[in-house]
Amino acid sequence: MSSLAATERASLCDLLTELGPDAPTLCEGWTTRDLAAHLIVREGRPDAVPGVLISIFAGHTKSVQDAVAIRPYEELVSKVRSGPPLWNPMRIGPIADAVNSLEFLVHHEDARRGSPDWVPRELPAEVQDQAWSRLLRVAKLNFKSSPVGVVLRRPDGTTSTARKGDAVVTLTGDPVELVLVAFGRTANQVRIDGDADDIARFKASKRGI
């Protein structure tokens, strides 16, 4: 089985090259240049990583990322493609798969779906299965802020409970689409079933880490 992290990294880099440095992404305020800089900082500047999640450190993270982003765009894409520095454990296959599979899958779609005319990729079953497996490992964390229970359902009827609750919404879609919902992306092809008020409450809630 091919590595989802490796294939999505390569595909994202191909797309970044195709789109150029100024294309919009689903990450608010970020162009493709900013997205590439973020990935480089994430893998190469551990001192700046906390600011991605903790607001008190966000200023430092932005400063580091902005400094990286002014490099030539081709250099940025090449750096992302080459992977983390030699000292980073994310160079080790199993660790890379664990921490990078969804990171690169989501950011690949961030770049693909930044324009309004996006269409979903036709992905092989192997990729969807890997995305589903990875999603189940993070779903409880990513949906922890939902005020209602959340059930994930694949088109074949396979289900998993991401969050328990008296009121429940069911999200139905291909695993990659469900991953995007789990990480707060609204550009997705997921059907949400449930009481209208519960659906509204779910949509208004924060998703992601």
Q: What are the SSEs and their pairings?
A:
Blueprint: H1 4-19, H2 32-44, H3 58-69, H4 73-82, H5 93-112, H6 125-142, E1 149-153, E2 159-163, E3 168-172, H7 175-182, E4 191-193, H8 196-204
Parallel strand pairs: 1-3
Antiparallel strand pairs: 1-2, 3-4
Helix pairs in contact: 1-4, 1-5, 2-3, 2-4, 6-7
Task: Summarize this entry quickly.
This protein is an alpha+beta fold and 209 residues long.
Describe the 3D structure.
With 209 residues, the chain is of the alpha+beta class. It is built from eight helices and four strands, in the order ααααααβββαβα. It is 51% helix and 9% strand.
Radius of gyration: 17 Å
Q: Which class of secondary structure composition applies to the elements? A: alpha+beta
Number of domains: 2
- Tally of strands: 4
Order of helices and strands: HHHHHHEEEHEH
Shape descriptor reads: globular
Q: Low-confidence parts, pLDDT < 50 over ≥5 residues?
A: none
Q: Strand count, sense and closure of the main sheet?
A: 4 strands, mixed
Q: How large is the count of helical segments? A: 8
Spatial sequence of strands, sheet with the most strands: 2-1-3-4
The residue fraction in helices comes out at: 40-55%
CA(first)-CA(last) distance: 28 Å
* Beta-strand percentage range: 5-15%
Average residue pLDDT: 95
